[in-house]
Structures are given as C-alpha cells and as structure tokens.
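Holo prediction. Input below; ligand is DQA.
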Amino acid sequence: MLKILVINGPNLNMLGKREPGIYGSQSLKDLENGIMEASEKLGVEIKCFQSNYEGALLDEIHQAADNGFEGIIMNPGAFTHYSIALRDAISSIDLPVIEVHISNVHAREEFRKHSVTAPVSIGQISGFGFYGYEMALHAMKEYLKGREV
Ligand code: DQA
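Structure of the complex:
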C-alpha cells in the first residue's frame, strides 16, 4: 500500500481557535481525521505529523524515505514564505512533495504570495480549505502511478 506522510507546520495546531474567519472552526484533530478517512477510501496509508519547530520538520522530512514513505503532503505554514532550510530539506530528498495551504495565499497579504518551498515541490494547492489535503492525496496517488515502471 502506498505510504504518504502528511506534515503540518507552525501554528496549525491552533486550527479551530486561530483566525476562524480564515482557517475555519475545525481543529487539527478534525483535519487529521478527515485526511485519514479520505486515505482509507483511496487505499493509501498515511501518517500525520505536526510541529511548531523547524528542526523537527526537517528531521521528519530527512527520515521520510527510510520510514517507508513514497510522498509528502505538506502545509509548511509561515515557513513557506521564508524557510530556506525547509526548502533545502525538500531538495535533499528524492520524494515528491505537494504543498498545501488552507487559505488562498495569493489573495492575502503580499508576503504570503511568495513561497520558497513551492519551486521544489511538484505542485501547490491553495484556497480549498481542509479539502485541499484530500485533493493532494488524489494528486499524489496519480503522480506516483505515473512514476511506476
Ligand atoms: C497557511 C498560509 C500561511 O501564510 C500561514 O502562515 C499559515 C497557514 C494556510 O494553510 O493557509 O500558517 O499555510
């Protein structure tokens, strides 16, 4: 079974409490339960990981392949906009990464329009709320199918 790692970065543990007008009223647990349900329907195995710490995110990315994952779906939160370390971590592994944002980052403040991680990802999904993670699961499954020889 395909194994995909789902990573949420800083402040995403605050979902439900944090700016509900932008991010909705559901919690990280709700998000992870929804992703889990979607993955079962798709026949994909997933692990969800969240951290507010850049180094912890880097460690998880570095170890992903050794832990048996074939792709990563990641919402890097604010690190999207400035973490060269996160970008380099993505570049340093041989796994496809799909970047997800709950909000439409292109319709918000100027600084959110720039992503340092999107150019090293296979694609970006932004603005579809929690459903974006499910979209990413479908996209990753299709992408990995295309890679099979
Ligand atoms: C976010 C958008 C980022 O700009 C912000 O810093 C976040 C959440 C999103 O999911 O819409 O923390 O990644």
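Residues 11, 75, 77-78, 80, 101-103, 105, 112 surround DQA (CB under 6 Å). That is the main takeaway for now.
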